Each structure stands twice: as C-alpha cells, then as structure tokens.
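User: GH10 domain-containing protein, Anisodus tanguticus:
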Amino acid sequence: MKSASSFARRLFKYHSQHTHTHSPKENRENTGSYDAINVILNHDFSEGLHLWRTNCCNAFVVPAGSGNHKGTAEDVGFSYAVVTDRKECWQGLEQDITSRVSAGCVYTVSACVGVSGTFHGSTDVQATLRLVYQKADTSYFFISKKSVTKEGWQMLEGSFSLSTMPDQVVFYLEGPSPGSDLLIKSVIITCPSCTDYESSGLTSSCIDDEKIILNANFDDSLNSWSGRGCKVVCHDCMAHENINPTSGKYFASATERTQSCNGIQQDITGRVKRKLAYEMTARVRLYGHNVNSADVRGTLWVQGADNREQYIGIAKVQATDKDWVQLQGKFLLNDSPSKAVIFLEGPPPGMDILLNSLVVNHAAKPPPPPPPVVENAVFGVNIITNNHLNNGTNGWFPLGNCRMSVQTGSPHIIPPMARDSLGAHDHLSGRYIAVTNRTETWMGPAQVITYKVKLYLTYQVSAWIKIGQQTSGPQNVSVALGVDDLWVNGGQVEVSDDQWHEIGGSFRIEKQAAKVMVYVQGPAAGVDLMVAGLHIFPVDRRARFNHLKRQTEKIRKRDVILKFSGSNFGTSVRVRQKQNSFPFGSCICRTNMDNEDFNDFFVKNFNWAVFGNELKWYSTEPQQQGKFNYRDADELLDFCTRNNIQVRGHCIFWEVESTVQEWIRSLNNNDHLMRAVQNRLSGLLTRYKGKFKHYDVNNEMMHGSYYQERLGKEIWAKMFKEAHQLDPSAILFVNDYHVEDGCDTRSSPEKYIEHILDLQDQGAPVGGIGIQGHIDNPVGPIICSALDKLSILGLPIWFTEVDVSSNNEHLRADDLEVMLREAFAHPAVEGVILWGFWELFMSRENAHLVNAEGDLNEAGKRYLALKQEWLSHTHGHIDDQAQFSFRGFHGSYEVDVVTASKKITKTLVVDKGDDALVISIDI
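Assistant: Predicted structure for GH10 domain-containing protein:
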C-alpha cells in the first residue's frame, strides 16, 4: 500500500485556513481540486455533525471561536468535534463512504486529532474501515494509528486500497482509552490521481508523477537551492575552465564551509511520502586545497509533527578534486514529516562540494533474481592441487622471493573443523611446505585456482599451520585469496609457539573473476612458515541440514502424554502449537515504530527485541553531560511491553573508542570519567530495573579498550559487579563479533573463553555469552566448533546481532538458514536475535528479509518457513489406555478434543525436560 500524499497535506492546510459552510456540490464548484476528490463530506465539521455518526457514545461540535474544550491547547479558532461518554476504546465517530470509493485506487488519509481526559502520558487514536458484506462476515481494515498527548493537535496519516468492493464501507476514528474524549478537527481522504470526482468516478489508477527535486540541473541558477551553514554559487566553469559540468550548462558549489556538515540543500517538504522507497542520484566533485579526496554524503533531515528530528543517511562516496563521481543511494520515511530537507555534507571544512545534478525518484523495484544454478557441483572435493605434496611442490609457487621446500613431520589427521564436512577421507601424508627467506609478511606458498572455483558455492578452508622460532611474540597467519584486485579473508589463526595449529574459514565468489589465487601469509618478515594439508572444498549444506534436523529433534522436542478422564476410546484429538518458546528476536529502532507494516511483521514473527541505538550511552546522553534523552528508549520499551515482547538491553558501555561521545573523551581527569561511568550505571539500571532481561554490559571488549586504558584493568569487572547490584534480575552478557567464523584472531573462541574466565576470576557475574553473528558465507562445522568450545563454560549462548549479506536473495536465504539451523540445533544456544530485517533500516546492505516497501524476499520467506517447520501439529484418536502421545517442540499449544456430544479446547505448555511430560485432561 502507498501512503498519505503531500497533496493531501496541502489540502488539509488549505481547509484549515479557509473554513466555509457551502454544501458538497457548492464546494466542488467553488474550490475545484479540493472537495471534488475528498471522500469525506463535512470534513471540518463546519456543518455540525451532518453525515457523521457516533458508535454507542455521544458527540458535539465546538464552533469556531467558542474556546477550549477541557484544556485543548490551540487552534480554538476552528470548529472541531468532541466525542465523549466513551466506555470502550472502539467508540468514536464514523461516516459511510461507500459511494465515494472504488476498488483499485490507493486512498490517502489525513486526520487532525486530539484527546482530552484524566489519563497520563499518551493514548492512541486509530483510523479504521468497517467493511460490510451481505454474504460474509463484517471485516475491519486497520489504516493507521497515532500516539497522541493532551498537549495539542496531531496529524494521523495512512492509506488504504480495496481489492474488491464491499456492500458498505464505513470510515471511523477510534482508540483513546475509555473515559477519554476524542477530538477531531478535520478528516481528508483523497486519491492523488483522481482530480475530478464526477468525471473519473474515482476509478483512475493512482500514479504519483510529482517532481521531487526542483531545478535539478541548475538550469534556473540556484532557484530552490540554498546553503546549509555555507554559501552556494552557480558556475558554468571553474579553475580556469578546468572544471566543467558533465551534463547541462551549470553546476553549483558549496563554499566557505566551516564544518563538515555544511553543504548545499533543498527543502523537499511535501514532495516525499511515507513508506515509499526513493533513490537519490547525484554527480559530485571536490574543490580546494590540501585535500585530494574525501567522503561526500547525501543526507535527509526530517522533523516530525512532534518536533522530533532525524538525520537519514542516504549515500556516501569517495570524491576527488580530479573528476565527477556518482553518489547514489536509497531512503524511506516511516512517518510523514512536517519538514524534509535533503543536503550534501562530509568533506573537511574549507573544502568545496561541487554538485552538477541531483535527482530523487521513486525507487524502481528490480525483478527478483533467479536462484543461482551451479552445474556439476561436487561437494567435499579438495580443489587444491598436490595437497599431499606427493610430487614435491608441483602446482605450488612462492609468492615473492621466499623459498619453498617439502619437509616431513606434520599431523596425519585432517583438521577437526573440516572432518564433518568432508565425510570419508584419507589421512594426510605428514608432509608440509616449509617457507623460508621471507622478507615480507605476505610471502608464502600460493596456487592459482581460477578455473576450479565455481560461482555461488560456499567453500570451506582448512589447513595446519606452524611458524619458526625466529620470534618470541604471537604471530597472525591467514589463508588469503586474491580475487582480481580484491583481498578475501579465508581464515586466520594466531600462533605463539612451535606447535601445529588448525586454521579454518570460508569464502564465496559471486562474480566471475579473471584470476583467483590462494596463498598463505602473515608471520612477520624473517619468520619461517609451515603449511600442511590445505583443503579448499565446496560444502554440502543440504547434507548438513539433514544432520541438524536430527539434532534438533533431540534437543528442542519433548515427549508428551495426554491422559484423559471421562473419555471414550476413539475420541478425536487435534494438537496445534501456537508458538515455539525458543527466542527469535530482531533489532528495532524508534523510527520503525511509525511504520505500521513494520510493526505488524515484527509482532507476528518475533518474540524478543533489542534496540539498535536508543539505549546506547551516545543516544541517552549524547551532547552534554547530564542532559538526557530517554524518550526514544521509553517509547520502544512501551511498544514491546504492550506486545508482550521481551527485550535485551544493548548496551550499557561500548569499549571501542570511536563510539565514545565527545564530552566523555574530553574528561581528562580519570576521577571525572569514573564518576561519569558510575552515573551511567546507576541512572540507566535504576530507571529500567527489572525491565530488560539481558544487558550487554560492555560491548566488544575483544576489539576495544577505551575505559580499561583510562580506568585500569579492574574496570571491566567493576562494571559487571555494579550492574548486578543495581538490577540483580538481569542476566549480564559479554558481546563480541567474529567469534564464530574463524576470520579474526582477536576474538577466536579460545581468546573469548580466556577473556570470560579472566572476568570471572575478578568476580564479574558474567551470566551469558553473546556472539553477534555478523557473518559472510557461514559454514556449519566452523560455527558448531566455536559453540562446542564456548559451551564448556556452562553459560547460555545467544546469537545477538545476526545478519548475512548477499546481492542474491536466494544465497542470502541459504546463509540465514545455516545460521538459524546451527543455533537451533545446538544445546548451548538459548536465543537468536537478528540485527534487523527491513531494507534501508539495517547496518549492512543486502541483508534484509523484507524489501523497503514491505515485500517479503527469499530470505524472509526462508525465515518464515523455518519458523513454521519448528511448530508441531498432530491429530489422531485417544487409545484404549485413554491417552494420546506425541513429540513436540517446546512452546505453547492448543488441544481440541471432540467427542460425540461436545468439543473442548485446552491450552498447555511443553517446557524443557528429559522425561516425558504427562498432562491430565478432564473431559
């Protein structure tokens, strides 16, 4: 569905300023393009309550100039309706619009509403359609809702489209809590393309041809453009005619910039619509001294009706002073802003931003890609030539001027992470490649595998690695791939002794390359490198999935015996699982809550949530010490509470310095920093005591040390201990990335275990292990190996930020299935949280499950299919022992029992347990 249009907003503004008392026919004659297409008659109550009806309550109209109603704060110069004596939330005001709407059109709704009463905070006002059919049940179509306070009028906006016409269509406003009065100033329902009500009959298709960017090529000089904190100038050429436009006759420069956020801008208020995806395309360049290249960013600043501000990043490109480059990206608005400004920013102060053209269009929907076809795929077969080294170094060559030789004394068994993938396999030969005379870290043994790698297959990498004794410190060793001019990580390991170490990783190539080379690199120059048993082979995910299904059957299900009393042999029983109790959650953000489609998908398909940024310190106390913003987090928490969603608290601190806000970094005195840390702990955990089930206490300690370097080694344990004292009910987690994929030596499972044990030795009450799960090309046995290692600590493991990325949504679906099945099949894993699911609202591109305008893609379909697979349904008859038995997933169930004379429904919960669950049911 499309959303409320800018045209409807202009119509509302027009009628707020031009109150009249003409009849509908006179309105059409006198105002042309307004009432001719407004579906609602007497939209501003200038004719009292004519054509409006109440739903089991009372209403009256406050005439213009009559004053306030129960404290209504503003706009008393206009008539408005008051709906009072409301005993139920659904009671409100309605109008029959049957004769003024048609199937096939998208109608936009704009209503100006308010509330009054004795309630505190806010209450929801909702727009709904009642669809009445003579031969079917009456149905209800939710249009939109708005959280409204007593402080003033609010705009409620939404849209609807009818695929078929009911016998009656009734529009109504409802929703405030019982006892509250609903106030309505104006209601507008329009179809943007239906500009002549009588001639079109409201059957035209709704097409938005509105031009969004005005004077996009500067043909009209700087008309419609302005500087954002700087000066803008129009040119036909610059720099002694060395800079000329690539299209059109002119370009603009944003000059005299004193901050990186300064640039050229255009106000596009009213020309972009909510819930529609837009694409911005611009040609940009730099001009100035000292900086040859810098990032140029396209940004959208919006201000909501409640004055809430938001900056939406659209696109970023590395621009230079040498040539024009294209800046391109997409954006989407969840709500209808009162103000919207698009602008360019980014380069350092003093650098000019040049703009040749900027266009914003409704983003075209590309056709879904077909599933990739891999012909003659042979899984589990090593593509490395002469990996046993039976023919010396044949097939290998040294990268650089190092020397290679074949030696004996390496392990005879394949590295553990590869064994499950390879199935039956031969033992290794015990020979290895010794690399000496290494004068650069990248020098090592290499092979060209260009014609052995098939596109779209996920390859697992496995080998044994050892280093010489020329160094006393730990050394990173990696398997790398050169794919044309790109470097691809195939796995890393840290080596600090003279033992053999397993290295494992994965990769996938989705675009044909002219050359693919694999090589082993990493120890410091002068350190000898030894490599044995290098395997690179495509993994058979289907075979792995079958194995995981058997594991899942063992650990996520339980035998259930229903024992009936008062029943007859043969009584029928139907068992339906309503919800699996395993936590599946998603990251959400405050702006998402303004999109009812997002809300609907989230509430239906997830039972846990984590906030993207709203609880982080840089969001709750951003610019100035002591100046707090808990509003966004409060509203998200309230949304989750209303919908019975459990919430993780992410995060109390973040150890990576780049995430620490400026005012904290300016605290040179460590006592002041310690006081700020203590205030953060006491303020956050006291405010939300008992409301967050988990907390990530200090995010990414394996990748940062900001607080530890300033406050000492013990600060990490101190954060955990004080958090536990302030909220003993919350489980306190460590949380880090690249733990499960073999591509980062800083956060290997072994180092993560050492880190957790060190915290526990200092008294930190670590209650859970967070694995973020930002992963590419996941391989099940590598993930499972990490989980097996971490599980020795006996702590619950959660995947806390899962996302997988691929341009091809079929591959993305496969990757997501790998992650979800591995997590669900492992007994130590107690929950999975996705790091978002909606396009344009995720930190990684091409990782979404739902496209920007609400279409489910292949990854989303796979997620829902797995959720359905993990529900148990069965039916049959009570046996001669008056029992009915089944094995079902943990979670909540409904049981229907049908006898000859009656049908009863019982609910039950299947929780974890090794023994059969016996439940008695009296019928």
